[in-house]
Amino acid sequence: MKKRIFSIMDTTKRKTGVAVICAALVITMGTGMAFAASLYSLDNSLPTGSIIMETASIGSTQYYLVETEEQLRAIGSEMYPLSGNYMLNADITLTQEWIPIGSFDNPFAGIFTGNGFEIVGLTITDPNVNFIGMFGHAQNAKIYNVTLRNIDIESAFRRGNTIAPIVAWGINCDIYDNQIID
Description:
Strand content: 25-35%
Structural class: alpha/beta
Low-confidence stretches: 39-48
Radius of gyration: 28 Å
């Protein structure tokens, strides 16, 4: 009985076991953190060139939430298809020459809603652009509640190209409740 009690009270074996388990746990966590660091930069953002949009669902429709100029320009990229659904989630001021969303060969075919927010400073001055507007060419799209403020697209117009502030060329589209504020 005495031998059993002393054996129960002896913690040296358990301390070694706990140390081994803690060391294994630290190594596992370190490996995971090293792997995560290889995917993300130190400031917790994705590597340069990656633009991430959050999503929101309204009913059965899922929307990408557009909050920055970079996100707006990413529509039509590999990550954000022209057939996607987009919703402004902040006012956006454009700082560079605008390249219209959608082309004759690749029209915008999704949903875009301004959601009560504004896009400010849309500027197109390149006379070589065939479709002059926020959306160059849209087909089977729904574009509504878009507000453009302080736009400059007239200087790009030349004979033979199509110009309209919201959608320059639309086929079978629902385009409504949009406004231009100068």
